[in-house]
Every structure is written in structure tokens, then in C-alpha cells.
Fold this protein.
Amino acid sequence: MHTENLGESKETAVIFKLQKGRARLGLKRWEGDRDVLTLRQVHSSKVWVIEEFVEGLEGDALITKKTGLKIGVRTADCLPIAFLGRETVSVVHAGWRGLKEGIVERALEELSRFEPLENFLVFIGPSAKACCYQVGEDFKEHFSSLYYRGGKHYMDTQEEALLRLKKSGIRELSLYKTCTVCHPSLPSHRRDRTQERLLTFVELIG
């Protein structure tokens, strides 16, 4: 599923919304939102399963079954991934280091303890894509979604995550197919070293 809806941001703080059953997702600009629990992101494979609002955690993925607890990740070229299940939600921050360390696979492993992976709708948010994201030749040892042009290698983090998710049995996907680097309305650290971030958050309601 491919969804792109940048125009809505002119009317509301939320750029994109998605809901499946009790699980809902929002994508917006990070504004120091105190009602959303985020991590100290370190480009790791560390996954936290939480039942309450606990600040100061270090890692790159959160999972909860707690109703009303909003969890989120902040990105500005790295890839935000969100899982919307029947009784479980999760968010993942996946840069190239996290992908290399296996953050997607670790999150899937933890999620499978709570409910079948086929239950989940997975959202893949905007990130640096192969049109703009130049990487080194050594990336060939770790990643499949690389493109070669003009004597240089380029990586698509969205495609890399898609391959890994589909390999794990995920079938229901929502892809926000936008490159943060070349889309001026989205924050990009690679483009202009901005301190602004996107926030991708999920929660269980009702």
C-alpha cells in the first residue's frame, strides 16, 4: 500500500493518520510532545517492552500493550516503522546502523511473543531514499537495496525494510513513499543539518 498525503499538514499538526481496529498512528513534526514517550535513540538493536511512561530509556524500538500509552520515534532521514496489531503496537527507529544491527528482526521477534505477525499492519515512513542517499561500497556486504550509478552506490532504506518485513511474513503494509532529503517540506539532516525531526507515534485506544 502506497500512501502520500503531505498537503494535510497545512490544516493540522498531523501530516498523516492511520488506524486499524484499536491501534492508531500519527505522523507529525516533533514539537517536544510531552504526551508521547520517546527513546534516547542510539542506532542499536535494543527493543523495550513497556507498560508505563518511563523516560530516559536508551534504544531504538518500543512495544506496548497498554491502552492510552503513546509511543514514538523521531527521525530526519532515518526510517520510522510502526506496527499496528490487535492488542499490541510498536515503533522502530531504523537508520543504516540499526538495520545492520538487526533492529527490524529484533522487533519482529519480540512482537511475535504477543500476537501472530500476520495480525500487524506495518507503516513505513518517509526516509532518505536511493535518489539521494549515497553510501560506501562496503554497504554491499550488509544490504540488498542498493543502486549503482555514476560510479557511486545509493541505498533505499524503505526498500531494505520492506524486504526484511516481507521475508518475516508481514503482508499488510502502508508505505509513505517520500524521500526526506529531496522533499523540502520534510526535515532532513543530510540536506541541511536541521535539528527538526518528524515524530511517528502509535497508541491503543478504547
